[in-house]
Write a structure and sequence with these properties.
The complex is a heterodimer of chains A (81) and B (362). Chain A has 81 residues and is α+β, with helices and mostly antiparallel strands. Chain A contains three helices and five strands. Chain A starts with a strand and ends in a 6-residue tail after the last strand. In chain B, helix 4 crosses helix 10. The radius of gyration of chain B is 22 Å and the shape is globular. Classes of the chains: A alpha+beta (81), B alpha/beta (362).
């Protein structure tokens, strides 16, 4: 599973993308579970009270199911102008 | 002469004289005349928009010039809105330009925005972004949003007809300090130019009903690999039913007694009063110019710093323009409820313009 990182999430993870090992992704059934998994890996993500997630370029809720082949994007709001 | 002026776009099959007419009647408000707002204003004016409103109260600083390309070295220290007016008048004398020499606030937003057909959010902070969203929902107006972070940009058209709002994508403002602003994070000069130009294009499309309007679509631009991604998102009905603004938009403007002018700070310093001056800008900003005797504690370190350093004297917080210094007081107020704390209005920009030269002479 590939996670695309935008805004501050890219800074937190230190990379533009993140690949999750297949063994781990099999256990992740929903966006909510994936978020908890990522927050354990990168605790700074917990500070982001407003974070949109897209699955295959569509906005997703915590309940949205995910599969190992999905492309996920973490999209925090950005404010600069 | 007028026809010839716009002939390159009126000869376009998908634009034409009819759309030019629509454009010439449109009233567009641009909130923020900085990195994003400048290309929006320049292109809308050049292409013949009817009325352009601007809301801005900042002054032009040296560190603005790498991205705010309407301004030059001779404009340093002047008010952005007045310099922009002067330059846009020369660009197109037919554009009706309206100035609102203020920041957009909870108190003035509905009044200022109500006379326009379309709003462009070219602001640089979350408080204003949520305020614009809520005001536009209440007034039933679409707005073209653009925002940047480092090499990235986000663009969308919110509240367009039945389409989703900013809160449908990001329901509430992020916790303070969790996502940095431009001054803390840095921005490559050309990025707001690209993102602002994308906003200008969306504004033109909305006004003239041309092409696919990016309602319910968030465009993510990444300058590092020149990629553009589009994310679809749905309307959340309750966000469209708003009738009132929120009670406050963070950062809440401080109570009056928590604000101090650069002159009152100067007087305190002259009287050798027991005060502390805390500069909450980044170390890079602080290194360039700072007030004598001040201590640099960047905003993101402020809670850590004051967990070991008590606030003993009346404390003056200063940043570049007076926004971060207010946030500092909000962070610290719960911990030091009785200590006098002041945010210096206008920050270092005002200090340098109004006080620094007189101190040097004395």
């Amino acid at each position: 599973m590939t996670i695309l990182l935008f805004g501050i999430t890219r800074d937190i993870v230190g990379n533009a993308t993140l690949n999750i090992p297949l063994n781990d992704t099999r256990a992740l059934g929903s966006v909510g579970q994936l978020k908890s998994y990522l927050m354990d890996l990168f605790p700074a993500l917990k500070d982001l009270t407003s974070l949109a997630v897209a699955v295959n370029s569509n906005y997703a809720s915590d309940k949205t199911p995910i599969t190992t082949t999905d492309e996920i994007a973490l999209i925090p709001p950005v404010s600069g102008g | 002469m007028k026809e010839e002026r716009y002939i390159r776009q009126t000869t376009l099959k998908d634009f034409g004289p009819e759309k030019q007419q629509l454009f010439a009647k449109a009233k567009v408000m641009v909130v923020g005349v900085g990195g994003l707002g400048i290309p929006v204003l320049q292109y809308l004016s050049a292409m013949g928009v009817g009325t352009l409103g601007m809301v801005e109260q900042d002054i032009i600083e040296l560190s603005n010039l790498q991205r705010q390309v309407l301004y030059g070295e001779e404009d340093l220290g002047k008010q952005k809105i007045h310099v922009a007016l002067d330059k846009l008048k020369r660009l197109n004398s037919e554009t009706n330009l309206k100035l609102h020499d203020t920041f957009l606030t909870r108190g003035n937003a509905l009044h200022i925005l109500k006379d326009y057909d379309l709003i462009v959010d070219a602001s640089d902070n979350f408080a204003t972004r949520y305020l614009i969203n809520d005001a536009c929902v209440i007034l039933d107006k679409p707005f073209v949003s653009g925002a940047i972070h480092g090499f990235e940009g986000q663009v969308s058209v919110f509240n367009y007809k039945d389409g989703p709002t900013y809160r449908c994508l990001f329901p509430s403002a992020p916790g303070q300090g969790s996502i940095p602003d431009c001054n803390e994070n840095g921005v490559l000069g050309v990025i707001p130019g690209i993102v602002g130009t994308l906003q200008a294009l969306e504004a033109i499309k909305v006004i003239t009903q041309t092409g696919d309007i990016m309602s319910g679509v968030l465009l993510l631009y990444n300058g590092l690999d020149q990629s553009i991604r589009k994310i679809k998102f749905p309307t959340v009905l309750k966000n469209k039913q708003r009738k009132e603004l929120e009670p406050a938009y963070e950062p809440v403007l401080c109570e009056m007694e928590e604000l101090a002018s650069v002159h009152s700070l100067n007087e305190q310093m002259n009287e050798m009063a027991h005060i502390s001056i805390i500069d909450v800008r980044t170390s890079v900003e602080y290194a360039q110019e700072a007030i004598e005797g001040s201590t640099n504690v960047p905003l993101n370190e402020i809670l850590d710093y004051f967990s070991t350093n008590p606030v003993e004297h009346p404390t003056y917080f200063i940043c570049q323009t007076g926004i971060r210094s207010q946030q500092a007081i909000q962070f610290l107020r719960p911990r030091f409820p009785k200590t006098p704390m002041y945010s210096v209005i206008g920050g270092m920009a005002a200090w340098l313009q109004e006080v620094a030269s007189t101190r040097n002479k004395s």
